[in-house]
Amino acid sequence: MYNIETRCVQDGYTPENGEPRTVPIAQSTTYKYDSSEAVGALFDLRAEGHLYTRISNPTVDCVEKKIASLEGGVGALCTSSGQAAVLIAVLNICSCGQNFIASSSIYGGTINLMSVTMKRMGITVRYVTPGMTDAEIDALFDENTRFVFGETLANPALTVFDIERFARLAHTHGVPLMVDNTFATPILCRPFEFGADIVIHSTTKYMDGHATVVGGVIVDSGRFDWAASGRYPELTEPDESYHGVVYTKQFGPTAYITKARVQLMRDLGCTPQPMTTHLLGLGLESLHVRMERHCQNAQAVAEHLAAHPAVSWVNYPGLPDSDQHALAQKYLPHGCSGVVSFGVAGGREAAVRFMDSLKLAAIVVHVADVRTSVLHPASTTHRQLTDAQLVDAGISADLVRMSIGIENIEDILRDIDQALAKASGTR
Ligand code: PLP
């Protein structure tokens, strides 16, 4: 097998003699067959092939194969957004009356989905808060628990998830570990190597990397033994919507990802489009190069901010005095990705002045693309909260979240310095 950099560029599509060098865009909703028997075999899952683009498509297939290769999984399913990836990944093994365990340090949109929408579907989340002991986490499991969930590098708290520890806890209770690897990407961390079973991504972030396409993906390690666990009749007993197919028997290690596609993507239709998935594929070809530069630039920005008198604190796991540094050295040895958060001395007003003074970095509600961007949650996404409520939410009034791009580092630092000077009134 090639190294990961080569797999970013080459995997997923191997043209035959005379075929297009790059992945062709199969902008077609449907496919043509020579006989009713041929199409019937697809409907019965007896043959492999494309039936309808809601379920699979040749362009999307190439991108899925590339991502599966990068993560080291047996199969992948692209979705229309990261939110859709989480939704399908969860519903594939968890239904009304059941529960799951999640780290409380995860993306706010995922918290909404899990705490509000899934609750209305009868699925309950039990959060693990920082500092909980193994015994306290053990006590959260019961016979209806179906999986454990966390983010490798959490958005926006930048806490590092102890994948090995949570894999051990999950497996002791006979359930899989699901990891959102969006901020790390498989370039910086491959959760399957630490015992995770399912990986999901918002491909909207670094994988696309250019802020062009909203998308998500689910990747299956193929290693979790659903039959041995005995908790997943949806995978080990006949599916009446496919004439009694038993996924674990018919598809073996790809049972989970096959069911997610042929049953849930068929029924829910959160499908990515071939044209835009092609753009995701282009982004993936340079993922390794971009991540290296994002990490270098973010580390330099974090170190610069940490020594700056107009900055009251910096949160970046790559800083030696970060309380996440030890975990980062284990799980993110090649760099801690591109997001840095910090406090502007002078509180909310100074933070707003800083933001408004930036020239290169743009204010956007997004992270993880090639352009340096910035957000002040207290005056935007969380502006309805008081300073006291912000502290409860783990977001201080002076917090600025900066997504460091791949521009020249001197230009980024100069922009930050001139804006900090204006924020602190020294210029
Ligand atoms: N997971 C993480 C870690 C995210 O940061 C996001 C979005 O910011 C999502 C999931 C949701 O992804 P999307 O916006 O593509 O639906």
The helix count comes to 18
Low-confidence segments, given as residue ranges, are none
Distance between the termini: 55 Å
Radius of gyration: 22 Å
Q: Supply the number of structural domains.
A: 2
Biggest sheet strand order reads 1-7-6-5-4-2-3
Sketch the major β-sheet: 7 strands, mixed
Assign the CATH class of the largest domain. Alpha Beta
List the helices and strands and how they pair.
Layout: H1 4-10, H2 36-43, H3 58-71, E1 75-79, H4 82-91, E2 99-103, H5 108-120, E3 124-128, H6 134-138, E4 145-151, H7 163-172, E5 177-180, H8 185-188, E6 198-202, E7 216-220, H9 226-229, H10 233-236, H11 247-251, H12 255-268, H13 274-285, H14 287-306, E8 311-315, H15 325-331, E9 339-344, H16 347-357, E10 362-363, E11 373-375, H17 387-392, E12 399-403, H18 409-423
Parallel strand pairs: 2-3, 2-4, 4-5, 5-6, 10-11
Antiparallel strand pairs: 1-7, 6-7, 8-9, 9-12, 11-12
Helix pairs in contact: 1-3, 3-13, 16-18
What can you see in these coordinates?
The protein has 427 residues and is of the alpha/beta class. It has 2 domains: 4-283, Type I PLP-dependent aspartate aminotransferase-like (Major domain) (Aspartate Aminotransferase, domain 2, 3-Layer(aba) Sandwich), CATH 3.40.640.10; 288-424, Aspartate Aminotransferase, domain 1 (Alpha-Beta Complex), CATH 3.90.1150. It has 18 helices and 12 strands. It has helices at residues 4-10, 36-43, 58-71, 82-91, 108-120, 134-138, 163-172, 185-188, 226-229, 233-236, 247-251, 255-268, 274-285, 287-306, 325-331, 347-357, 387-392, 409-423, and strands at 75-79, 99-103, 124-128, 145-151, 177-180, 198-202, 216-220, 311-315, 339-344, 362-363, 373-375, 399-403. Strands 1-7-6-5-4-2-3 form a 7-stranded mixed sheet, with helices on both faces. The longest helix is centred in the last third of the chain and has 20 residues, at 287-306. The termini are far apart. The mean pLDDT is 95. Bound molecules: pyridoxal-5'-phosphate. Pyridoxal-5'-phosphate binds at residues 81-83, 107, 109-110, 151, 155, 180, 182-183, 202, 204, 214, 216.
